Amino acid sequence: MTANSSSLSRLIARIRKLNDWLDGPHRTQQQQQSIIPPFPGPWGFLTSGYMLGLIVMAVLMHRIQNIVVPPRHRARRFPRPQSRHTFEQFAYRAIFPLDFSSSLVRLVLRLPTLYFLSKSLLLWFTTLAQAAHKFPSSDRLLSLASWVARYDTAALCWFTFCAVCGALCVEALARGLEGANSNASPFNLFGYAFLLHIYSSPITHGTKLQDLPSRPDKHVVFTIILPLLQLAIVHCLGIKKSWSNHRLIPSAFVSIIALIHFHWVLWFSDTTYPLLNYMPCLFESILLFVTFLAIFLTAFTQIVAEGTVSRPLFGHHAVLLPRLDEDFSIALLRMGTASLETSSVAGLGNEVSDVAVMPPVRDQTEVGTVALSRFGVDSISHSLDGYGRNRRAKKGFANEIKNVKATSNDGDLWLDLAWFREFVKFTVGVARFFKQLYTLSRDFLRSPRMRPQSFSNTQDTAPLDDYLQGERVDGQDVYDRFIRGEQLSDDEYDEYEPTSRSCSSSVESLSSISDNVESNAYDDQIETVSLYADLSSVIATSTSASHLLAHLADHSPSPLTRRRFGQLVSRSSPGPQCQDIKDGWTDVMHARRPNTVVSRPEDAPMKQEGTVSYVLWNRVRLFAGRVDVLRFAMIAEKIWRLVRPCQNTRVPVVEQTSKDTPRYTFPRAQAHNRVKFMLYFVFRYWKQ
After folding, report:
1. Which residues cross the membrane (predicted)?
2. CA-to-CA distance for 69 and 173, rounded, in angstroms?
3. What is the pLDDT of residue 631?
């Protein structure tokens, strides 16, 4: 039993040894991976202390810029304290309020941040010398070298970030108390924090020493030192008030050193330049090249052509030249943009900026424009009159050109702009031509003349055409009977039915529109017969003749009303005949109107005998006999059929006016009856 247990334990021990031997390399790899930290990524930066510091700085800077402002009235210093005041009050009154124009006060305010910035610069410069193996082997600096060598890189990056944040806060606070511009010290704090976060990880370090913290590459350390050095110089210049805004010189010094370092690493070094600062340096290099090229070409042209530089190197040199109170990168960007916009156009194109012109009023004519270049006339646009489809180009002396435009021919080296412009105009003209041709063709094809008539439509409209033709024949028959002098009466049409109604079976299949046409035509027939019957009837009385004679003989400016006509007849032939002429309207007028009519002198000749009226009437009848009455009747009949008056009252209505004279009026709804009434009296007068 004991032997079996001992053999089993030996077997288990051998299995464990085999298992340890097989898992040995994998376990060692896991231990190494646990020692090496992961590469810091964007999400790691968002959850790091740098991001928290950026948020705190954003809130703090915003509050300082909006709250810390100088008072409107400077407070006077306290008077000399008396002996009964304590020492604390004396010290307080001796210090406050602070005089920010004093360099001592400004130095004391910046001493803490200057200390932290100086310490950071000392650590980074020592680290740079150690990474480049250029640190001096002096016994005096041995303690400094050992202290910096044992300083952790992550702690050094975090200390630098805190020093930069403190310097920015003190700078904003001092400028707020002075009343200066709060944005006078631009600093990319976000980019600098991301740079420190990336190179604080050991995985990005290129220099690793035994039993010492690893260090980044020497070029990375140099790129970290440059922004810190610029901030420290600007912070030191803020001690003196007259130098506090001079940022151009330190920013230009640091930027030039950064560009020199960039091109030296790019062209002459085997190592690579840090990617986080690669694009800013490349962009500044391009701007510098464009600016210096424009300056050189402008100066060379003036020296060769004139012998001296007579014009400034830029169009507005007072605005484009950098100032002492701005950053070098901002001035470089403005000068580079101005160099890119420099053109060879002389005159207004190079001296005057664009002028905003109000759009023309819609009622005004668009004047022509001529484009001039250094080679002469480039293009001419005609004056345009009208808008939309009615727009027409003026030609000749009407083409007034008022606008002159300066153009450049630089693009002609790659493309013939004049030919391209004319080709576009030709293409637009051809497109408009085909569009109008398509519109005309479509309208022509849609016209009624081009529509094919179907067989069914021909059959349906045939009975209606026959019916209308029969109506025209019947109308001509009535007119012939009227010319022959036969007796006409509308009673003969009371029981009249068209022949087409009883003979043609296809009329029943017509629509309601055809029925309405038939009824209207039938009513027109009855009305035509009634009119001819009235015209052909012989009136024995001389009332119509008297009406015509009175209108011909009356020369007064006022209208000849029924009342005046009755007075004329009663004065010329008094007797029982006068009472027959006066109708019910005369009785109503005499009953309701006061008798205020006064006889006029021009009515005296009408009091003569009736023989005068008889002689005048005979002359009128002889004159009327010479007129072609039949032709006039035919024309009147055509007018009558065009007017088509309604079947309503034909008698005019007499209204009273303000001058006690009646006048003929017609209802507004019976506009056609007015024409009918006029034709009625005209035919009666000419017939008699």
Report:
1. 49-69, 115-132, 153-174, 219-239, 248-266, 286-305
2. 9
3. 53
In a domain, 358, yes or no: no
Q: Are residues 176 and 190 in the same domain?
A: yes
- Whether 391 and 425 share a structural domain: no
Same domain, 314 and 177: no
Which pair of structure tokens corresponds to residue 404?
């002159």
SS3 category, 208: coil
Largest Cα separation within the chain, whole Å, is 184
Give the pLDDT score at 42. Answer: 62
Is position 656 within any domain? yes
Same-domain status, 409 and 429: no
Q: Which of 74-78, 604-608, 615-619 has the highest mean pLDDT?
A: 74-78
Paired tokens of 470: 């029969």
Q: What is the per-residue pLDDT for 125? A: 94
**What DSSP string describes 223-234?**
HHHHHHHHHHHH
Enclosing domain of residue 397: 344-353+364-414
Mean pLDDT for 263-284 is 89
- The pair of structure tokens assigned to 229 is 């050095």
Place 128 in a pLDDT band, splitting at 50, 70 and 90.
Answer: very high
Does residue 129 surpass a pLDDT of 70? yes
Asked if residue 609 and residue 570 are part of one domain, the reply reads: yes
Q: Specify which of 506-510, 632-636, 663-667 reaches the highest per-range mean pLDDT.
A: 632-636
Nearest alpha-carbon partner for 549 in 531, 573, 533, 532: 573
> Quick one: 524 and 566 in the same domain?
no
Whether residue 276 sits in one domain with residue 200: no
User: Residue 641, exposed/middle/buried by CB under 10 A (0-12, 13-18, 19+)?
Assistant: exposed
Q: How many folded domains does the chain comprise? A: 6
As a whole number of angstroms, the distance between CA 221 and CA 156 comes to 12
33 belongs to a structural domain: no
**In which band, very low, low, confident or very high, does the pLDDT at 627 lie, cut at 50, 70 and 90?**
very low
Whether pLDDT at 577 is above 60: no
Rounded distance between C-alpha atoms, residue 130 and residue 149, angstroms: 8
- Any domain includes 228: yes
The answer to whether 620 and 551 have CB atoms below 8 angstroms apart is no
Return the higher-pLDDT residue of 342 and 512: 342
Do 421 and 401 reside in the same domain of the chain? no
Q: Residue 463 in contact with residue 502, Cβ under 8 Å?
A: no
Please indicate whether residue 297 or residue 618 has the higher confidence score (pLDDT).
297
Measured between alpha carbons, how far is residue 303 from residues 134, 299, 361 in Å?
48, 6, 49
pLDDT-derived band at 509 (thresholds 50, 70, 90) equals very low
Whole-angstrom Cα distance, residue 511 to residue 498? 18
The string of DSSP codes covering 467-501 is HHHHHHHHHHHHHHHHHHT----GGGGTT---HHH
